[in-house]
Write the structure tokens for this entry.
Amino acid sequence: MMTLPPLPDDGVELHATAADWRAAVRLAGATLARTGAAAPEYADEMIRMIDEHGPYVVIAPGLALAHARPGPEVRADGLAVVTLSTPVDFGHPYNDPVTVVIG
């Protein structure tokens, strides 16, 4: 069984504001960077994956699990949680709008 990495206090961003899904994913990426788990460029990789594959990261109503393949932007296992004060649409047919982004 795989265990989740710890969630440090600076890995949580509550009541954030994002203009759209890209901004929401950037917030998750910035939070991962703040914890040292990823370089700031990891957000660009997460956005690229969604641009290429669609809103598959919206895994449940209101919940997105933003991620990208491991690469040089990844520094360690990490977890980030961002809650949004105003939901954003990712373009998912059933699970939009999103209020929580996990990175």
About this structure: The first strand starts at residue 12 and ends at 16. The mean pLDDT is 95. The two ends are 20 Å apart (CA to CA).
